[in-house]
Design goal:
With 139 residues, the protein is mainly alpha-helical. The protein has one domain: Four Helix Bundle (Hemerythrin (Met), subunit A) (Up-down Bundle). Helices cover 78% and strands 0% of the residues. Helix 1 packs antiparallel against helix 4, helix 2 runs antiparallel to helix 3 and helix 3 packs antiparallel against helix 4. The mean pLDDT is 92.
Amino acid sequence: MYAEFDDTLITGNDMIDGQHKELIGKINDLLRSCEKGDGKLTAIKTLDYLADYTDFHFGEEEKLQEEIGYPGITEHKKEHEKFRRTVEELREMLEEEEGPTDAFVSQVQKNVIEWLYGHIKGFDRSVAEYKYIRFNGML
């Protein structure tokens, strides 16, 4: 199962939505490399690239939250840190195995795709809504 950016993931913030599309593309690159059997090294490199982009994206989200005075920033940062740990655990799993196993792919689907969908629909959408309300004179 590949990740898909659809209307349910739109936050209304063009920068964040664009980065989410890019993030989903990188997740799918990882899944494709596993599916094709590209091997352990390729999977590790792809996962590292995903981790780097995730760090960039989280930094951009957190910068935006600071700029707009988002009250839930502390909790949001904690969620980002949980995800970073998940990616680290996936990397450890890859390093311990011969290569990307079915169990690894299953963990990516469960702990990356499902987490990301829930995070975008909850945490990220609330940031976008807060920004919209605050800067359109409603707060």
